[in-house]
Amino acid sequence: MARGRAKMEKVKEILNRYGNSKDNLIQVMLELQNISGTNSLPHDWVVFVAEALDMPVSRVYSVITFYSMFGNEPRGKYLVEVCKSGPCHVSGAKTVLQLIEEKLGLKPGETTEDGVFTLIQSSCFGACDIAPAIKIGEKVYGNLTAEKLTEIVDSYREGQHNG
Ligand code: FES
């Protein structure tokens, strides 16, 4: 399992880069999720990180499950996050969610069969001034309308984005 070993080396390298510090757990986990190839955190990595940082595995899991951006199970290439916090909520986040559900044929927590999108609801990610907002991967989109949403989703389907 040379590939698995290479990946573990990468996990170690990321931990070292963040000083093997508990204070950097979120950043470490984000980087690990980005290199996982499954947009999620494999169990053996979580165990490895917990041991390296001298934390109980359950504590690491409680952090991971608190933040919607982390996943325990393989997810689509793009995480589609629909903000449900106050400002987005009053600006039509519910309608945005419904439109995306229809467009992708997904409910929150589900992944498209082609493995491209996973839909989740998330808390405020700081784009309240352009509410209602969504995030796809690292990109934020706001002031959403039905037309705009269709264009955005189609642009990902047509492969206009690489990350
Ligand atoms: S409330 Fe939605 S991004 Fe802040």
UniProtKB/TrEMBL annotation:
Coiled coil residues, start to end: none
Residues holding [2Fe-2S] cluster: 83, 88, 124, 128
Residues annotated as signal peptide: none
Keywords from the UniProt entry: 2Fe-2S, Iron, Iron-sulfur, Metal-binding
Requisite cofactors: [2Fe-2S] cluster
Keyword Iron-sulfur: yes
GO molecular function per UniProt: 2 iron, 2 sulfur cluster binding; metal ion binding; oxidoreductase activity
Pfam family, one: 2Fe-2S_thioredx
Keyword Metal-binding among UniProt keywords: yes
Superkingdom assignment: Bacteria
CDD domains per the UniProt record, alphabetical: TRX_Fd_NuoE
Cofactor note: Binds 1 [2Fe-2S] cluster.
Family (UniProt): Belongs to the complex I 24 kDa subunit family.
Name the record gives this protein: NADH dehydrogenase (Ubiquinone) 24 kDa subunit
Species for this entry: Ruminiclostridium papyrosolvens DSM 2782
Lineage start: Bacteria, Bacillati, Bacillota, Clostridia, Eubacteriales
